[in-house]
Amino acid sequence: MRLQEFWSRLEERFGPMRAQSMTRDHVFSALGGRTAVDAIEAGVPVRRVWLAICEAYDVPPKDR
Question: Whole-angstrom Cα distance, residue 43 to residue 49?
């Protein structure tokens, strides 16, 4: 998954404002206690970050 696709999916699923907030403010235990933005900056694969968000926010498997 490319970074641009990650942001597009987030904004489509949650809306632009919530997507920005959740990636900067929510700390995900599945990402080592980091926010999504921090995890991406630390080199965590974008797909893994996307799946952690999906799990935390109960995104249906078909939309992941």
Answer: 10
Decide if 1 contacts 46 (C-beta within 8 A).
yes
Please provide residue 63's backbone torsions phi and psi, each rounded to the nearest 5 degrees: -100, 0
Among 17, 12, 22, 16, residue whose Cα is nearest residue 49 = 22
Its pTM stands at: 0.91
C-alpha–C-alpha distance, residues 18 and 62, integer Å: 21
Profile the chain (64 residues) by mean pLDDT over runs of 10 residues.
96 96 97 98 98 96 89
Task: Say whether 33 sits in a helix, a strand or coil.
Answer: coil
